[in-house]
Design goal:
Blueprint (H helix, E strand, L loop, with lengths): L13 E2 L3 E2 L7 E12 L38 H13 L3 E2 L2 E2 L2 E4 L9 E4 L6 E2 L2 E3 L5 E11 L3 E5 L4 E5 L6 E7 L6 H17 L12 E11 L9 E6 L2 H20 L7 E6 L4 E7 L9 E2 L6 E2 L2 H9 L5 H10 L5 H8 L2 H12 L4 H16 L11 H12 L5 H12 L6 H7 L8 H17 L1 H8 L5 H13 L5 H14 L3
Parallel strand pairs: 15-16
Antiparallel strand pairs: 1-3, 2-3, 3-13, 3-14, 4-8, 5-19, 6-7, 6-18, 8-10, 9-10, 10-13, 11-12, 14-15, 16-17
């Protein structure tokens, strides 16, 4: 939900887009701020024991507490607090030692209590920020912990709206930036880096398509060279980085057009229309006083121990920036390859697992880039299906000449399809092992002879100097062999028989 705000001050995030320069009048700089909502990876909700899961039937994950029924009291989820602290540590924040809870009052159908439990006066994290490159450090104002609202489901065919409270009470952190960004590209770069940081820290799964990582953009413009921020508008619930960029750019154009035409900008909340790439007004933008914040009387203050905070900070895994430095500096990767590996945490973990089991970084990169990522494609499913142990076993079998490169790829593909078969089972069932015993070599001689006899035109082409026909013969033989003979052995046998052909 939207953080507390004072219009056009540094207590709000104001993201900045590129400089816009209408030739006939004033040149403007777009200033935009981000409020990022990241749902936490807890098993249960923030103040009750209902499951924190996505995809359940409507209102399946609800109880009297998260439905706001009379007589219920909130019980704070310890895991949510710890994940919020870990998120703050990962983003370089200071952790507030004594934090509290406040009620943010507003009436909306998806908020069953008529107020949201949040943190106005003592957010759990303050300060911090991220370096997005090019000498640009984006500061955070604070991070606060709060409960999510429910979801409205609009049925246009019946002209009705249903409410699903499964999401009501789900714990999230809201990350509020300072007005430091100066382009839509910077805003997207920052949001992407926040998402990656939280995913690697195990705080959030970052699934934007499920609404578990959402971005609000606060946009204003000011004349180039000015220090005074303009009137801002907030574009809510952007669920893809492409829409974040489009919304910022659209709002910047609208602000400039309004100013140039002599109109008056209003502080307001807007929504992004995906079909048009434009925004439309939802309501006038509220200030903190409109929400009537006051301390929640049902939840005591929370005092955090220095030792516990330090242990949570120490438990954080290696962050993506450090991993990239290791991949480039120690493993000899290009920055492009490192970014590709790091784009999915499961892939980076798989790569590190393969290297840890003794594979050369070059070999591990090859199987990840050539097979794992190719089969994963653009799907949102991050499950790999191949264990690092199986990958290393295949690499060693290939190096020992026990399995062909084609069959290695085939085995990986079959494992990733999730048939449930083991690597050993696949290799055996598909007859993938290369066999060079006497019986196998005798069968090879007969097979090559049959293939040559069935393709006299191709044999004539080879005899006439068409060396590439050799690959055709190998392919025809492997339809039967399926990689069970070393490629060099097969090639030697084909050449030997071709030399004798016709003599």
């Amino acid at each position: 939900m939207t953080a507390h705000s004072t219009a056009n001050t540094d207590t709000r995030a104001n993201v900045a887009s590129a400089t816009h320069a209408p030739a006939q009048k004033t040149a403007y700089t777009t200033v935009v701020g981000l409020e990022i909502h990241a749902e936490l990876l807890t098993n249960t909700k923030l103040f009750c024991g209902c499951p924190n899961t996505f995809g359940s039937g409507e209102n399946a994950n609800t109880c009297p507490g998260c439905l706001g029924l009379p007589g219920t009291l909130p019980a704070l989820n310890r895991a949510a607090v710890e994940l919020a602290i870990k998120g703050g540590c990962a983003l370089g924040c200071d952790i507030t030692r004594t934090t509290g809870w406040d009620r943010k009052s507003y009436f909306y159908a998806d908020l069953p209590n008529g107020y949201q439990i949040t943190q106005m006066y003592a957010p759990i994290c303050t300060g911090g920020g991220l370096d997005i490159g090019g000498g640009r450090f984006i500061r955070l104002h604070h991070i606060h912990l709060e409960e999510d609202a429910g979801k409205l489901i609009h049925d246009n065919a019946r002209n009705t709206t249903r409410i699903d409270f499964n999401r009501a009470g789900v714990p999230l952190i809201e990350i509020v930036t300072m007005p430091d960004m100066r382009s839509a590209e910077e805003a997207v770069a920052f949001a992407e880096q926040v998402r990656q940081t939280l995913v690697y820290a195990g705080v959030c799964d970052g699934r934007m398509e499920q609404g578990r990582f959402r971005v609000d953009a606060n946009v204003s413009v000011m004349p180039v060279g000015s220090e005074k921020l303009g009137v801002r508008s907030e574009v809510k619930n952007l669920n893809s980085f492409r829409f974040v960029a489009q919304a910022i750019e659209s709002e910047a154009r609208r602000h400039i057009r309004t100013i140039e035409e002599g109109g008056e900008l209003r502080q307001e909340t807007r929504r992004f229309i995906e079909s048009s790439g434009e925004t439309e007004a939802m309501r006038e933008k509220e200030d903190a006083v409109d929400y009537r914040y006051f301390p929640d009387s049902d939840i005591p203050l929370l005092t955090l121990d220095d030792g516990h905070i330090d242990s949570l900070r120490a438990s954080l895994p290696e962050p993506p920036g450090a991993r990239k430095a290791r991949y480039v500096g120690e493993h000899g990767m290009t920055e492009t390859d490192a970014d590709t590996i790091l784009s999915r945490k499961t892939v980076a973990d798989f790569y590190d697992g393969v290297v840890a089991l003794g594979a050369e970084p070059r070999e591990a990169l090859g199987i990840v880039r050539g097979e794992i990522l190719r089969h994963m494609g653009d799907t949102e499913n991050d499950a790999i299906g191949v264990s690092p142990k199986d990958a290393v076993k295949l690499l060693r079998m290939g190096a020992a000449g026990e399995i062909s490169a084609a069959n290695m790829k085939k085995a990986v593909a079959m494992l990733m399809r999730g048939s449930g078969a083991t690597l050993d089972g696949i290799v055996k069932a598909e007859n993938m092992l290369i066999r060079e015993d006497t019986e196998a070599l005798a069968a090879l001689t007969a097979l090559v002879g049959d293939v040559l006899a069935a393709n006299p035109a191709a044999v004539a082409s080879y005899k006439a100097g068409e060396a590439k026909v050799l690959g055709y013969f190998m392919g025809q033989c492997n339809k039967t062999l399926k990689g069970a003979v070393q490629p060099q052995t097969l090639q030697n046998e084909i050449k030997a028989q071709l030399e004798k052909w016709g003599t």
